[in-house]
Design brief:
The complex is a heterodimer. Helices cover 83% and strands 0% of the residues of chain A. By secondary structure, chain A is mostly helical. By secondary structure, chain B is of the alpha/beta class. A six-stranded mixed sheet of chain B has the order 5-6-7-3-8-9, with helices on both faces. In chain B, α5 crosses α6 and α6 runs parallel beside α7. The radius of gyration of chain B is 18 Å and the shape is globular. Classes of the chains: A mainly alpha, B alpha/beta. At the A-B interface, α8, α9 and α12 of A face β5, α3, α4 and α6 of B.
Chain lengths: 282, 226
């Protein structure tokens, strides 16, 4: 035990560990805030779909030789996000089919493009890093960190300012529109923000696991808490705690960062499910 | 002056006309029941009045001091709401949003109004309870309280007794009648012709046997045996 603490203390003297911690906490906080609404709107899978789109676009950006691939990746992901949120409201085109199609389609095309055009000697390493999260969380630049801080502050303040509107639009979109609130505008803003957060969160846990950051804290909180406010607060706290524990554990055990964070999230969900079950019985 | 006037409305979806050239007016304090077979366009009409759907032609006008965002609405329950973690108080308060504009939080007066509406509908004791754990009748009362926060003038109810047991149904009708007696205009979609002719002042019958007029005329036309 003491050895572990010593090891952690030692690691925390490194700047890159502190930065990784900061960025991890901020990203999971943002995704948890959005997650509550996404899970309730039946969009749990959107994190997965959008991150695959981002993966595909990254591959294309790589093939085109774009170094700053965010210029291409962000707009494409945002457009797909708006498209997906729109079809979800339309009962005729099923939202889940559109999502699944976009998700696997871009995954396949992304891998194909990477295979055909990559100049890298370690192709499978690159693919694996994008899908499962790379160690790049430990090699963040200062501009990465600032970008992350600014976006998290924006997401959090947006959520606080529009909290009551977000609640009402999620609970009952028709009613909210009928009494004159621009539900469509809020949905649009929401779609843009979720795309941005997912592209950022991909770095932390990778394209395949990014949904976990979005849905697990919200789902765990919903097992136990019963009001929108308490669920939101609880899921934010869970996200922060689980991600911190995950990063610490991955440092100590030298495991992949993304997968470790998700494992902690899963464990937390099990604990909360059991708690919820006991509370309902008791 | 009527609160809501529909002029030559033609409604439909995907290019298919469901209702054509419909005109009627609802005055302050009226109790209008919209009846008709499935697919006769009852819900479409209600969504058009609420501004959720654009008519294919014609228009909906509000008057008599009613603004288009002051229409309270009791929708049918959605799947999303079945396992939505929300307290009764949170749901009721969200009816005040049309007063907020860009202000992010509720004012003290709005919170007070939510409490009063909960008392009025006899759900004040449920304020902290979770919406999804309530009975059907209680849930409808919560949504009604929310609608009352949005307006004190007119309520549009989309099958308010669907899925309720006989006791809860009777309670619901009584409650709506009390609100109507208090001066609130009611427009209600109903499948239950007996209840419609018992409580309503006006009837709008959509479909083949089209009718719009007072309840008495409606009963006369159908030979008194609705």
């Amino acid at each position: 035990m003491i050895a572990i603490i010593d090891k952690l203390v030692e690691f925390f003297q490194y700047e890159f560990v502190q930065y990784a911690m900061l960025v991890g906490v901020l990203i999971s906080l943002s995704s948890a805030l959005l997650g509550v609404t996404l899970v309730l709107k039946r969009f749990s899978f959107i994190g997965d779909g959008l991150s695959h789109v981002a993966f595909g676009t990254m591959a294309i950006a790589g093939a085109l030789g774009l170094v700053a691939n965010l210029i291409l990746v962000l707009p494409v992901t945002i457009v797909c996000s708006i498209f997906l949120m729109k079809t979800g409201q339309n009962a005729k085109i099923k939202g889940d089919a559109a999502l699944a199609m976009l998700s696997v389609g871009s995954l396949g095309i992304g891998y194909l493009v990477m295979n055909m055009f990559s100049k890298s000697s370690n192709l499978s390493g690159d693919v694996c890093a994008t899908l499962f999260g790379s160690r790049s969380i430990l090699t963040l630049s200062h501009s990465d960190i600032w970008l992350c801080i600014i976006l998290s502050v924006l997401v959090a303040s947006m959520f606080i300012l529009f909290y009551h509107k977000i609640f009402s639009v999620t609970f009952d979109e028709d009613f909210t529109t009928a009494i004159g609130v621009r539900a469509k505008t809020y949905n649009l803003i929401f779609a843009i923000v979720i795309a941005i957060v997912i592209v950022l969160a991909m770095r932390l846990v990778g394209a395949l696991l990014v949904s976990a950051l979005v849905i697990f804290p919200a789902l765990s909180a919903m097992r136990v808490f019963k009001s929108f406010f308490s669920v939101t607060v609880c899921s934010v706290m869970l996200a922060v705690v689980c991600t911190s524990l995950g990063i610490l554990a991955s440092i100590v055990a030298e495991t992949p960062v993304g997968a470790t964070i998700v494992a902690v999230d899963v464990a937390c969900f099990v604990v909360f499910s059991l708690t919820g079950f006991v509370l309902r019985r008791g | 002056m009527p609160q809501i006037t529909c002029q030559n409305l033609t409604l439909g979806y995907e290019g298919k006309t469901v209702i054509s050239d419909l005109s009627f007016a609802v005055g302050t304090g009226d109790y209008l029941c919209i009846v008709g077979e499935n697919g006769s366009g009852k819900s479409t009409l209600m969504k058009t009045i609420l501004g959720l759907k654009a008519p294919m032609s014609g228009q909906v006008l509000t008057g008599g001091g009613l603004s288009p965002t002051e229409i309270g609405y009791l929708p049918q329950q959605t799947v999303v709401q079945k396992d939505f973690p929300a307290s009764v108080r949170e749901v009721v308060r969200s009816g005040c949003l049309n007063r907020c504009g860009i202000r992010p939080f509720y004012s003290r007066a709005e919170k007070q109004m939510a409490e009063e509406n909960m008392k009025k509908l006899d759900i004040a004791n449920l304020a902290r309870r979770c919406y999804r754990e309530l009975s059907g009748g209680q849930q409808q009362r919560v949504l009604l309280a929310r609608a009352l926060c949005a307006t004190g003038k007119i309520l549009l109810l989309d099958e308010p007794v669907a899925g309720l047991d006989p006791k809860a149904t009777a309670d619901m009708y009584e409650l709506i009648e009390t609100l109507n007696n208090g001066g609130i205009t009611i427009i209600m979609i109903s499948h239950d012709i007996n209840a419609a002719t018992k409580y309503a002042s006006h009837i709008l019958h959509l479909g083949a046997a089209f009718f719009f007029g007072t309840k008495l005329d409606y009963l006369d036309r159908s030979g008194g045996c609705a």
